[in-house]
Model the fold of this input.
Amino acid sequence: MPDISGDLVLFNELVEVLLKEEDQHPVADRIDANKLYDAIDLSLNASAMIDDELKSVLKDVLVSTPKTATNLFFNQLFGGRQGKAVLGDLLAVMLNTSMYTYKVAGPQVGIEQEIIRQSCNLIGYGDQSNGTFPTGGSMSNYMALVMARDAKDANVRANGMTKPMVIYTSIESHYSNTKNASFTGIGKNNIRYIQADSEGRMIPAKLEEQITKDLREGLVPTYVNATAGTTVLGAFDPIDEIADIADKFGIWLHVDGAYCGGVIFSDNYKHLVNGIERSDSFSYNAHKMLGTPLTCSIILVNDKKHLHDSFNTEADYLYQTDGDDFNLGKTSFQCGRRNDALKFWTLWKSVGTDGLKEIVDQQFELADVAIDYVSKNSDYTLYSNYDSVSICFNYKNIDPEALCTALYKSQITVVGFGAFKEDTFVRLVTINANNKKLDILNFFKLLEEFVENNPNLATIEEATQELS
Done:
């Protein structure tokens, strides 16, 4: 049996280096992309590298990699680090099981199914519900669209597309919808992007209007994608109203909760997805709101037969023992599949459902701190609303793209920018539940000090003139 004890000692040493570095330098020193291979030895060599040399290179890589777990990382729709989830992920690496059969995965199958069962209970799905762990939110949306297509035309798997199907999603929805229309054979030109209101939510009346128009033209409305947490404003589409329309026309309703679907764990914010129990499928990412390591995505279906109908293919060489309920490869998109459930289970098991609720509530509380600060300061312009963990604003009319880029290049903080309708702005994401009120206020302090010390930053008007 290989002796990996020395490698585990090295791992622990490197983790200590990383944690110390995160504490002392929360934002990594930036390396220009065109200088990367000169700055760090990333080459692959023919001969072995002795441990001390390897350790040195690994330290260089760790120090230079963006630090997504620190209190100055606000750029992506994930951040922070939940220790018990990290523990589960490390154990999954050591076990190295694949999740397609009970013969290979054993109790890990039960762990995955328990998460799915409890998640279905939380959103009000019935006894026939089930789900699986795809590789990410985009894949969750893809699987939902495949099931919708197959539910509309049972022959499509064997014969290919024979009907001019049409799908619907908000103009503010995730870009994976465009790719998925292409992958499923429906076609990008058969997506209908529905107008959003002033808060970034799909307008149900516009959806119904478009469906009615497509029916008159002989097309086949097939799928509606509603979003629980749009990527820019963090807006929640009105699921109940959209479900009324989907029911009326017999269309599959999928709710993409990749970003903010974690609200299902919160008594205070679950109302944002009212009507979720009426959807045909729902997905959420535990690596976003719930702080597990990447990736941890879950798709749930109201009726598990759709998973089986769309994704099951018999393989005698693989499924040799136990029943379908324990051979998860029969309802997943891929065959060999990493165990992404264990890290979420160790977190959920350790803190309980109440603990997950606290994680979600903390993010909204931090968002309220940011919104309150921006609202009370005349140098800021606010573009987002309450009930969102994306706080969108501009400061002193400075071009947000220039400001965010300068903050990043100067290793002050990592924050992104976004756009909605005609406005572009800084987008602060409070999804790191390890942060406190002081961390949010410190972000604004650092931003303001940086602007004061860099008076030549371009204004929005100057940036607009440059583009024109």
Q: What stands out?
A: The radius of gyration is 24 Å.
